[in-house]
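New to this. Please check this fold:
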Amino acid sequence: MSGTRLRSRKAPATEAGVKPALLIVAHGERGGLRQDRLSHCLVGCLRSTGRYRDVQACFISKEPTLKSVVTDLSPGPAMIYPLFMSDGYFVMQAIPKMLEEDDGRHVEVAAPVGLSPGLPPLVADHADAAVQAAGRRVEDHRLLLVAHGSKSDPASRNAAQCVAAELAMANRFAGIELAFLEESPLLDDRIGQVEGPAVLVGLFAGEGLHGGVDLPDAVQRSGRTDIVLSPPLARAPGLMDLIRDDLTRIAAPL
């Protein structure tokens, strides 16, 4: 999968060998479980590696915010890992804006989890497990990927298309379909059109409103019994390992 894995926000000289602090930045879940479970589980997992002098979870839309955590952070370099599925508004604008007032610190912003080269096979395995749990044959099912989408920013669509293209090459499913919550083709329309049977996977990093409420509601509205709804991607068994491995590759001391 294409995409830069690491971007420098600021790069003043830092002491050689100093461990960076790691901040896991997410939107903050609305609806659904509202627990930001993945963010908090990642903190425990990544603290145990000993690669960072501090690991914290922070959010764009709720406390603790990225800005407040950075302000209170101990001196030294920091790395930010965005729990977002594309490099859209939140990664490219909201996060940098929150960092603008901290000009004395070396801050690296990694590419978001949605651009990880390990994401497509993880999505395929997650869909496969859901179909098998339903007692069905994977090769009979089309894979319907659902992303947020935006009428003003192509980043979500582009990231979803990259995942879809790689999965199409793997040829594990009867076909690959895309749908979005805020642009065409809309989820409700695509559910009505897709040839069944199908398995639906949401490209969302949390278990909140979109992954935990919007997708189940859409499947229920459709009345279709030939669509398998995967659990939220945040529950995929390999997701924390994928993120840890991504950070291992890019998180050498700054």
User: Anything to note?
Assistant: The beta strands are 6-10, 21-26, 54-59, 78-82, 107-110, 142-147, 175-180, 198-202, 227-229.
